[in-house]
Amino acid sequence: MSVNKNIIIIGGGASGLFAAIKAKENNPQKDVAILEAQSRVGRKLLSSGNGRCNLTNTSCSKKYYHGSFRKFIDIVLGNCSVDRVIKEFMKLGLMTKVEDEGRVYPVSNHAGSVLDVLRFRLDALGVETICDTRVNDIHRQKKGFYITTNNVDYICDKLIVCAGSCASPKLGSDSSVIKILKELGHNVTPLSPALCPIKVKSELLSSLKGVRVEGKVSLLEGENIIKEEYGEIQFADNSLSGICVFNLSSEMKKARKPCIAIDLLPYSDKKYIINILLKHKEIYNNINIENLFTGVFVKKLGMVILKQAQVLPFSRKISSITDDEIERIADVIKDWRFEAQKSNDFSHAQAVSGGIAGSEINPYSMESSIINNLYICGEAIDIDGDCGGFNLQFAFASGIIAGENV
Ligand SMILES: Cc1cc2nc3c(=O)[nH]c(=O)nc-3n(C[C@H](O)[C@H](O)[C@H](O)COP(=O)(O)OP(=O)(O)OC[C@H]3O[C@@H](n4cnc5c(N)ncnc54)[C@H](O)[C@@H]3O)c2cc1C
């Protein structure tokens, strides 16, 4: 059995919900339906921004995005800017506020508010939301598409694919539709996890679990810096985390043998740090070296720095530290190196690097240049953004553009 619709949207996530609203607003007489694999729409949206949904960023520009076809992002953002996305949400009744570094959140501080305004608009417009319906395949017909699902099959004239990629698959997306689009003739650049913790090799990290410190992290290939970021670094059992680390993870694929360097005091040079340590030697000369970093780092971190610099045992008095040891400690503080491991684990990723080649999609309409009447939006495309609202901005903008042009 098959059901006819004029316009079908695959995926009720960030891009799909906006695409459906705009498609129906522009084609009020047509049947518009969303097919969603999960039991409800917008699960990832609800988890976004730690449940607060960082929906866009006022300083959005091309420099915060990565992908093989950079011109694409310029055109999409030019066609549907941050102001436009905020205004579209205002029209739906959502009040927003701007926080640090231009991050935009709902004033309610609840991602549920963002999802609710989208859902209520869909209901008011009469868009059908068909949940528990996983698309298994898409067949091109003379005119339109035949879509097979785990339930009934669907026939439609126009199809908007908003099925995401495979970041955090427990929230819905598993890149299954990207594979279908590949079989239909699209090129797909390799998928790798982005905006995720970076696994590193170090036996010392387990004792730092839960410790957070402000610093600079750099992704290196040999001595060549691929990217560096400032911010709060979080230590975990066998990985480094925090927004600054997340932003490096997207670039891991650029390194053959990636390495992470941490600068724990980025605003002080090595000479200044050596002077501070000499001063500490003078003040605390008669106490154990494990207290050397009093007033600078938490004790746990200080002890690991000493181990890394091989300044042991902890029972030694601070007065016994030699100039050579102080030099080694300063080196660890300024340039602590970790061998990083590339990973294919998407379970903790907030985004995916790679996807349908942007060069095969018209950024003015989001229509595929390979298949007429097929539109592709959001994370399925080979574009990923840094942390800070850039991924949702792209998802909303591409959804709005597709819906308006379908
Ligand atoms: C934990 C977390 C927090 C995040 N926080 C932020 C943030 O604060 N700010 C930000 O900018 N970005 C954030 N992101 C990234 C952002 O959520 C995504 O970039 C964005 O949701 C992508 O939108 P999308 O519409 O392309 O895909 P999705 O939102 O993933 O939606 C795709 C939908 O398609 C459905 N689907 C998939 N396959 C099928 C199929 N075969 N049949 C039917 N339906 C299917 C899925 O169930 C899903 O509902 C976060 C991501 C995660 C995982």
Describe this protein's structure.
With 406 residues, the chain is α+β, with helices and mostly antiparallel strands. The protein has two domains: 2-193 and 353-405, FAD/NAD(P)-binding domain (3-Layer(bba) Sandwich), CATH 3.50.50; 198-342, no CATH class. Helices cover 30% and strands 28% of the residues. It contains eleven helices and 22 strands. Flavin-adenine dinucleotide is lined by residues 10-16, 35-38, 43-44, 47-49, 53-54, 134-135, 162-164, 167-168, 171-173, 176-177, 350-351, 378-379, 389-392, 395.
Q: How would you sum up this structure in a few lines?
A:
With 406 residues, the protein is of the alpha+beta class.
Which topology of the largest domain does CATH recognise? FAD/NAD(P)-binding domain
Strand percentage: 25-35%
Number of domain modules: 2
What is the CATH H-level superfamily of the largest domain?
FAD/NAD(P)-binding domain
What is the C-alpha radius of gyration, as a whole number of Å? 25 Å
Q: Strand pairing plus helix content: what structural class?
A: alpha+beta
Please name the CATH architecture of the largest domain. 3-Layer(bba) Sandwich
Gross morphology: elongated
Number of helices: 11
Binned, the helix content reads 25-40%
Unreliable segments of 5+ consecutive residues: none
Averaged pLDDT: 95
Q: What's the story with the biggest beta sheet? A: 7 strands, mixed
CATH C-level class of the largest domain is Alpha Beta
Q: How many extended strands?
A: 22
